[in-house]
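Design a sequence for this backbone.
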């Protein structure tokens, strides 16, 4: 009998689950209503060990993320969009190469502004970088010189750099800027969607990105290449089964096991209405010890400081299994992705784990049916 696994969610957790279940022989249907948090991520892949994490899936989760092109020695210090160093385990290759640990203290690193509107960010980032590398500075380069170029966004620039001949022009502009400024290393806001090495006379790196994030879009594209993703919204039917809503069509779907990889607030897996809700099966959701995100006069759920503890942001499921439903990724709560408590790698680890658990569950049910027949 075919072993049907439905995966709900097309972010890193859902795709890790789907690829794992498929490799174990399952027939997998992956449905996603659109991109979630994965497509907004910065280019880094964070990970922290938690006691509840399934250790047997950690190595495979890390391998899955590396298989998507992420690289690094497990202890990277990268230039964040706010100008402070961000610690992470893996990153996309042109970002990981800019590991600040490897930069000599007397380096003269430059944060490149490719167009007028980036000059302010570049100055902010260079100011942050100068706390660790005192000679750091912001460096405008002459590539987008027309008035209409001033407000180009980073995703627009990335698409432009992928056009034939544009990378050569960028290389020439960077070389001129290096000669004039004496920069020893260049940090660029983007190298295009399909980056290639650039010979500007000094090492050229890409920075981590804030949304809309070119590295995040790159990652989402890489995931979409690894498995077919069907567009649609999965809903629970009144009889307990599920159906896929796509446009005006509504199709019931029978699955032996389901992986729930619907993300948190951004992905759409968790909502906060009169109470916290898991959106497909209405499973119980917790933020710390609360099931509601009420405004509190204390800092119990949200700290007044950005760097404080925001228990409200850890909202999610407490368990990994609910009958034939296996939860994976950010829909599982208990950790705050914005505080470096783990992000993409935890999602991948939980995805691998859920893919395996779903297949094992179906095999056990089928074995029991065979034994009793
Ligand atoms: C701005 C930002 C920056 C980040 N930066 C980093 C970083 O630097 N490093 C890091 O490690 N992590 C980072 N993260 C966190 C990381 O992106 C997430 O932890 C991770 O992507 C979660 O993956 P996921 O697959 O669980 O969820 P998501 O990527 O959110 O995917 C959820 C999927 O479920 C789908 N879905 C939801 N409900 C349904 C439904 N009913 N039917 C069908 N589909 C449904 C959505 O459409 C989506 O495809 C960042 C997050 C954000 C928001």
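Sequence:
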């Amino acid at each position: 009998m075919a072993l049907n696994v439905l995966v709900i969610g097309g972010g890193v957790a859902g795709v890790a689950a789907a690829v794992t279940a498929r490799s174990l022989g399952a027939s997998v249907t992956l449905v996603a209503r659109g991109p979630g948090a994965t497509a907004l991520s910065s280019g880094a892949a964070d990970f922290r060990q938690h006691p509840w994490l399934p250790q047997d899936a950690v190595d495979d989760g890390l391998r899955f993320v590396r298989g998507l092109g992420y690289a690094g020695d497990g202890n990277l210090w990268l230039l964040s969009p706010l100008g402070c160093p961000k610690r992470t385990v893996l990153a996309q290759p042109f970002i990981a190469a800019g590991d600040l640990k490897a930069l000599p203290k007397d380096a003269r690193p430059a944060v490149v502004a490719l167009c007028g509107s980036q000059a302010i960010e570049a100055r902010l980032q260079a100011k942050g970088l100068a706390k660790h590398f005192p000679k750091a500075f912001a460096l405008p380069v002459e590539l987008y010189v027309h008035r209409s170029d001033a407000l180009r966004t980073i995703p627009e620039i990335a698409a432009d750099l992928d056009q034939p001949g544009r990378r050569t022009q960028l290389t020439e502009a960077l070389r001129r800027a290096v000669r004039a400024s004496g920069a020893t290393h260049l940090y660029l806001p983007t190298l295009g969607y399909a980056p290639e090495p650039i010979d500007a006379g000094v090492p050229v790196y890409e920075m981590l990105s804030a949304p809309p994030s070119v590295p995040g879009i790159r990652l989402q594209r890489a995931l979409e290449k690894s498995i077919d993703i069907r567009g649609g919204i999965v809903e629970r039917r009144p009889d307990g089964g599920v159906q896929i809503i796509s446009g005006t069509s509504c199709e019931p779907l029978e699955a032996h096991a389901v992986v729930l990889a619907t993300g948190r607030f951004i992905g759409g897996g968790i909502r906060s209405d009169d109470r916290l809700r898991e959106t497909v099966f209405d499973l119980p959701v917790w933020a710390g010890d609360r099931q509601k995100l009420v405004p509190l006069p204390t800092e119990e759920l949200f700290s007044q400081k950005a760097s404080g503890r925001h228990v409200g942001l850890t909202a999610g499921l407490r368990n990994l299994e609910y009958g034939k439903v296996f939860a994976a990724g950010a829909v599982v709560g208990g950790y705050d992705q914005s505080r470096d408590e783990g992000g993409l790698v935890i999602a991948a680890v939980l995805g691998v784990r859920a893919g395996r658990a779903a297949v094992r569950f179906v095999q056990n049910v089928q074995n029991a049916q065979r034994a009793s027949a």
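Helices lie at 12-23, 58-67, 93-96, 119-130, 154-161, 166-181, 214-226, 344-372.
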